[in-house]
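Please supply some protein, with fold tokens.
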Amino acid sequence: MVVAEGRRRLQAAGVERYETRERVAGIAMPKSLKYFKLQVDFAVVALTQLSPIPVDYMLDGYWPKLDLGM
């Protein structure tokens, strides 16, 4: 559940596309997206370690915001 929400948020931000572009073309992923992915991965770990996992774990308050201004 929490992992799927993290994946959904990363997909919505286009992280996978930039990771693929970085691997294939060697064009670095923007630092803001790398930082966002790191934060989402951390949130997934933190939320899955809670007992019980919050029922409202999908709310934006539990998740980082993508800051494209970095």
Summary: Residues 2-54 form one domain. Residues 6 and 41 are 7 Å apart (CA to CA). The two ends are 29 Å apart (CA to CA). The chain has a mean pLDDT of 95.
